[in-house]
Amino acid sequence: MKADQEEKFKKILTEEEKIVLNELKNIAVQNSSNLKDWIPKIDLNSDGPAGEGEDAMQTTNYQKRIGLVAELETRYNNIKKALENINNGTYGICLLCGKKIELDRLNANPAAKTCKEHVDKEVDDI
Ligand SMILES: [Zn+2]
């Protein structure tokens, strides 16, 4: 990949990293023993755990939050990984086949880890 393209993606990823991190901090707490893990806050309006008065609405909100945190967590980790790859010169290479990831795919998702052919096989732990 050309240096100016890489520089462009680095800027986008750095910006997105900040945004996703802010969103995560609003609704979750980072696990200090595993920095890739985020624990959803029980109640956004108080610092303590949910009490007996917790109603169904709150439970529903919490369940939604768990899903959202998982989504943001994956995005955040993918962005970090992509930035790491830019720094060590392996950015834009499909982790499954080693081919270059198509530019339009990276334009749509700069944190993509696989080429178009392997888009369905993209999993968390590769
Ligand atoms: Zn591939």
Q: What's the topology here?
A:
Layout lengths: L2 H25 E3 L7 E3 L15 H33 L14 H6 L18
Antiparallel strand pairs: 1-2
Helix pairs in contact: 1-2
The structure holds zinc ion.
Task: Give a verbal description of the structure.
The structure is a single chain. With 126 residues, the chain is mostly helical. The protein has one domain (3-91). The chain has helices at residues 3-27, 56-88, 103-108; strands at residues 28-30, 38-40. The longest helix is centred in the middle third of the chain and has 33 residues, at 56-88. The chain is elongated. The model has no long low-confidence stretch (mean pLDDT 89). The chain binds zinc ion. Zinc ion (ZN) binds next to loops.
List keywords for this structure.
3 helices, elongated, 126 residues, binds zinc ion, mainly alpha, two-stranded antiparallel sheet
Provide a quick synopsis of the model.
By secondary structure, the protein is mainly α.
